[in-house]
Write a structure and sequence with these properties.
By secondary structure, the protein is α+β, with helices and mostly antiparallel strands. It folds into three domains: 101 residues, no CATH class; 157 residues, C8orf32 fold; 182 residues, no CATH class. Helix content is 45%, strand content 10%. It has 21 helices and nine strands. A four-stranded antiparallel sheet has the order 1-3-4-2. It has a three-stranded antiparallel sheet with strand order 7-8-9. Strands 5-6 form a two-stranded parallel sheet. The longest helix is centred in the N-terminal third of the chain and has 20 residues.
Length: 449
Amino acid sequence: MKVAALPRKGSLMKLIKTVFALLLVLCFALPIQVSASSSALNELEAAQQLTQLLRSGSTEMTANVRTGFSFTLCLEYTRMLWPDYYGLTWSLHGNKASFRVDMPEPEKHRKAWEEAVSLAGQLKKQSTSEEQLLRAFHDELIERCEYDYEAYLNMEIAGPEPFSAYGALLGGHAVCDGYSSAFAMLCAAADIPCIFVPSKDMNHSWNAVFTDGQILFVDVTYDDQGQGKAPSYDNFLKTKSEFAVSHKGWDSAQFSIVSSAVWPENYASARALYRLGLFKGTDKGFELTRQPRRDEAAVMLTRLLGLESQAQAMSGASLPFDDVSAFYRPYVALLYEKGLTTGTSLKNRTYSPAAPITAQQYMTFMLRSLGYSDASGDFSWNSALEKAVSLGILTHSEMTQVQQKAFTRGTMALLSVRTLQAQTKQGQPMVQQLVGAGVIDAALAKEVL
């Protein structure tokens, strides 16, 4: 049976509250079919998968969903993760669901995205920090847009424009959904993590951004003091407790579910490494809850040594292993040549790139990047975490936590950041070594770390 959740003006503010955060590409390509996975998706997992497809230019997908799946909730989650005014049409046959995003004004959406990309690029050149860039987004929207009281009072008959990013960026009039949509679209264009935050109880919407290693909130609508007046900053980059003062009654449960999924534990470390160009994630994002592989660890070690460009020049180098893929081959070849990594069997010519790596093994890589050698007796690979404690890289309680939990890419990111901030065996901060080698920018490293 086919049903539809289309964007109604009244329900936008009261029920579903349009959307978003991480729009990177528009939705005018042919549908992409996603093969139904063996494990059925819940609403948030389906929303994340829809978001990935929307970024790639598709508006349709199929997938297995769990019994009792709520398409309305899935739409709400998707709108928090991907910006603009749209609805969702679906059909369900058994547990196999087909989804299609329906955008009522695709041409305006396209123009809004083009404007967001252009504006974000201009403002980024004028900003010296991420905070300054976010402030520029905030101020630019307030200067361009006037709150649309007529649309607010006549939501049931108002057109979609005031509720969309186009309304705030190019139309000159918008309600809270339009302001928040436009802010999220600018963040997406600038590669700043952002979530559209709806509140049914407050009949309002705003944004959350992950910046400065934490989640902070921005309400551009509340900070718009009216035409010709200077913007307020009472609701700009505030913590949740600070924000609660002006947003009493916010029903935050749904936001907590989404933010915990997209910004999990150790996201701050991963984000810092990403901004420095040392951690690039996969086509599925950072995947911080997944166990890291031996080949992924080799890439991180190469980057922390400042040798990525040297590794890439070894794409044609010989390697005594037959099971390393083309992407990882140069990294493994460089580290093998320098005696920093070995395979699992020279006889069988195997490196076992997909084999999981442990915390002790990864910390061994990190200590080697600092100039310590297990071969020379500086430490033992099976006590690498203890050595990290003795060097002040980890506290004893942090080491205990790492040992008690499954080793994930998130923990890998944490250990990498701590190593980056640590002293090398020669007494120089690792980050200074990479700055000196031209691997990372000094000003950016100061801001991020």
